[in-house]
Amino acid sequence: MGHVTVSVNGRKYRMSCDDGAEQRVSELADHVEGIVQEIKGGFRLVQEDRLFLMAALVLADQLGEVREELQRTLAQICNLRSFQAADNNASYIPSRDVARVVEASSARLQALEQRFAPTGTEG
């Protein structure tokens, strides 16, 4: 079992994790720290439990948006596959149409990734 010490809102927390996951846990803590600091703004005193709840809600919202985007992408892929299966020759859907869907999905996912990237935690 691995261990890592992370810092969020000026407090250190010793965390257990799977062996080899220490770097990932540190990165996740840095992401949470960025959200916490963004929520806090310039205020020094904010109730920590309230602050962490708000950070959890921000993360849950981000996760929900990513899930919705994934569902839209999967629906597009399923539609293309069912359309292709309906074609007796299975040659109607040009590869450029599939590539267009993949490129559009990739662009949307990259935009979400940039939107949800940790802020203010670069060290």
How many structural units, i.e. domains? 1
User: Beta-strand percentage?
Assistant: 5-15%
Strand order of the largest sheet: 1-2
Oligomer: single chain
| Arithmetic mean pLDDT | 83
Q: What best-fitting shape do the alpha-carbon axes yield? A: elongated
Figure out the total of helices: 3
Q: State the helical fraction.
A: 55-70%
| Sheet with most strands | 2 strands, antiparallel
What's the short version?
The chain is mainly alpha-helical and 123 residues long. The chain contains 3 helices and 2 strands. A hairpin with a 2-residue loop joins strand 1 and strand 2.
Lay out the secondary structure.
Layout: E1 2-8, E2 11-17, H1 22-40, H2 48-86, H3 95-115
Antiparallel strand pairs: 1-2
Helix pairs in contact: 1-2, 2-3
3D structure, described in words:
The chain contains three helices and two strands; from the N terminus they run E-E-H-H-H. It has 123 residues and is mainly α. Helix 1 crosses helix 2 and helix 2 (48-86) packs antiparallel against helix 3 (95-115). A two-stranded antiparallel ribbon has the order 1-2. It has helices at 22-40, 48-86, 95-115, and strands at 2-8, 11-17. It starts with a strand and ends in an 8-residue tail after the last helix. The longest helix has 39 residues, at 48-86. The protein is elongated, with a radius of gyration of 21 Å. The protein has one domain (2-115). The protein is 64% helix and 11% strand. The model has no long low-confidence stretch (mean pLDDT 83).
